[in-house]
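Async update (no meeting this week)

Hi team, since we skipped the sync, here's where things stand on the single-chain job. The sequence we agreed to prioritize is pasted below, unchanged from the tracker. I ran it this morning and attached the output directly underneath so nobody has to dig for it. Comments welcome in thread, and please keep replies under the output.
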Amino acid sequence: MLETRIYPLEKQQTSDNELPPFPNGWYAACSSDQLKKGQLISKKFCGHDIVLFRTESGVAAAVDAYCPHMGAHFAHGGNVQGETIRCPFHDFCFDVNGNCTSTGYGTKPPPKAILRSWKLQEKNGFVLVWFHADGQDYDWEIPEVDFKGWGPLITTEWELKSHPQETSENSVDIGHLSIVHGYSNVEMLTELIIDKHYLYAKYAMHRKADFFGNPKHLVRTEFHVHVFGLGYSYVEVSIPQYNLHFRNYVQPTPVDGDKILLRIGSNMKDIETPGKINPFLNIIPKSILNNLISKISFKTYAHDVAQDFEVWKNKIYIAQPALAKGDGPIGKYRQWARQFYS
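Output:
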């Protein structure tokens, strides 16, 4: 694990019916395959300008975007040199921990030339950056998942006006599943499980099998929802009738206090019984079939997520909603979410 410095960040002032813009927790800054060796990526992250880079040895790092020497932006003319990032203004170089390793003049780096680095972990195909409004170090982590027997991760992202607590609330908002998404026979299969930063829900529903070209046929789908803070969650999706299994990732990352970058990802467990989907699929090579079904399913997943956009972009947050039977455990979710605000 990289050793990085902790800096206190600004306080967040809000009204009763306004969520603080930047909850504490882990956020996906990009997917791992987006950050190549020797590459710089500029990001707006929780109101801060940061730069992600990957060294020649493959280590990923996140640092402030502006050089502490004289303020140049690393992503505008800078580059990665070996295990360091180089400033385009005076050739000052900094390692992944923010230490100045050299100047452009061959002189000793000044003691104050310290670049703020951000806590970072690379897990499950994503580059995760820790944010805490008070600058506190992380006290929990995102768990690794087993990718053995699973296909490659497919991702996409959108920037939209919303908030991580609002988008993550969909995990427990059972009522909207039939109204917005058109699912039927929605049912909670377990009580909500909460364990510190972790929340778990399990429910099932029926939806049209239009992703397999059979819009009149309904298939039962089960969801195991795993939420880790307000910035990282994944849903284990199973369709018993077809023996299909997916992991759908949802990662809302705050940008500037008004917008989020919503990144989703999905991968599929290798198909073992293609005949359960359609007998004709037995003649297709499994590698081709897995690739085809995963892409079709991801397109359906992205479509379903996008159905929420107009609501998210135009709604307001009501701190004390008039909840009704059928909403799902919204109250318990919101009580759990309070812990992520300083």
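Quick observations from my side:
Residues 286-306 form the longest helix (21 residues).
The two ends are 25 Å apart (CA to CA).
Reply here if anything looks off.
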